[in-house]
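Risk mitigation, structural track. In case the binding assays with S-adenosylmethionine fail to produce interpretable data, a predicted complex structure has been prepared as a fallback.
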Amino acid sequence: MNLPTKYREIILGGREPGEAYQKCMKALAAHGRRTDYGFTEAIVYATEVRYATEILAKGRPKRFWNFGDLEGGADERHYRILDRIEHLDIAFVGSGPYPVSAFLIKERYPTARITCIDNHIAAHILAEAVITRLGMDVATRLEDAIDVDYRPFNAVVVAAMVSGKRGLVEKILETSDAIVIVRGRTDLSHERLIQLGSTFRDDGSFGLNIP
Ligand SMILES: C[S@@+](CC[C@H](N)C(=O)[O-])C[C@H]1O[C@@H](n2cnc3c(N)ncnc32)[C@H](O)[C@@H]1O
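Fallback model:
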């Protein structure tokens, strides 16, 4: 990890985790800094690991805040698509140590089956512990996104920080009948593909056009 002092001070400065994340985003936008995956992961994990450990210590928070939604309205955009699908069986790809998006989806669709997929061992173990602590019926899998068999799912949500989104989306569309919601843009076009704007690059690192 090579996290510049300024960002280290923001994320370790005692702020509420999501507030610290958003402050880092504003600093990145203001300074036009180039980032890579390691830098991105350090800031995202500083946020998510804190939320996860807080829940492990104290239980359910007052609310689940989708802190990464800088412009607002992201959850509603997902719901407009998922509302139309019966018997939801969702793969959430890139769930992170604190799978808040999966929790929000589960709250809206209590009977939906949700499987959280992540290739990072710390994310997998923490997410599993948080899910158990919250008593939620959400499955977890430690696997690289590209290796997953997507045929059983009727909806796949791909998180913005997932690396290799283009190749992954192509595989999901070719090998399953699932509706695919990707947070970010690829050059692909397909009737089952919905691409939501995101500031993350295809390799999962922060882009510079942060609002
Ligand atoms: C931090 S999460 C962001 C999602 C957020 N927690 C949410 O609920 O919306 C992004 C995760 O994607 C995972 N990831 C990145 N590339 C991946 C890949 N190719 N396969 C599986 N997981 C991946 C990272 O390990 C990271 O934990």
